[in-house]
Design a protein that fits this description.
single chain; alpha/beta; Udp-n-acetylmuramoylalanyl-d-glutamate--2,6- Diaminopimelate Ligase, Chain: A, domain 1
Length: 311
Amino acid sequence: MSTTDHRFCLNQDQSRRRFIYNFTKVTSVAALMASPVISKADSFFTPSAPVTVGEIMDMFICQVPGAPISNTVDTLKAGSRDIQVTGIVTTMFATIEVIRKTIALGANFIIAHEPTFYNHQDETAWLANDDVYRYKADLLKQHNIAVWRNHDYIHHINPDGVRMGLLKQLGWEGYYNSAVTNVMMLPATTLSSLIGHLKQKLFIDKVRYIGDPKQNCQKILLMPGASGGTRQIQAMSKEKPDALICGEIQEWETAEYVRDAQAKGEKLSLIVLGHIASEEPGSEFMATWLKEKLPGIKITHIPSNNSLSFL
């Protein structure tokens, strides 16, 4: 970490100490929180010093090697850093439905992984006269809700928080290899059984795939989210996996490469989970991290679920 980055984290650490100190003073309460019965509650006591949106953002950012990241999309999309937090919601998308559930919970800080306003940079000038945008922006403003996108930082924490959240949900943590983070050697299984496991663990009704359901699969290339065709194809070419499991694809790129690879005679399959299904566990990872750091704040993960349905 550079001197500038180190100084950034030190400055933020001073503000964190102000409210963390108040937790440590309540030793009897902390002891109760550690008990098997009390610890089941999401929230038991309120910190005596207010915790702000900015302090919570900085707590996470300072865990990331090389932070702060320049030109990041991880900025506030609504609200301000000075808002005193009454509760936190983690989610993939800060949809209107998620916002309404946040209001019902009495929370006022949403940490979303993906954009709030329908484009990567969350630019809104082109939406100024759009009724859907105005309704959503006004809803957030009316209830003084802050929305922070945590995309770049959660991917850059070591190890990648989205990947680790996905591995945990799949029960594959034991196969993680820090030397080759996107490749795992699983017990041999058929492509059909592998798809069945993914559907069950990630609550997916249907997936798109290319391959022979009877094909043996052991070496897995795991690329959640939207890596892009070039990265997906280069990774398959280098690693020679039995199957690529990814979030989403450009149909005219990755899928066509896999189809040609099979025509050539290679045993290569493709499983497309959907972007949300592949990265939603990262928001659960974030909720777990927050609960460990902020035991006095109500923290809830609300799945945004897939916007698309299948007939």
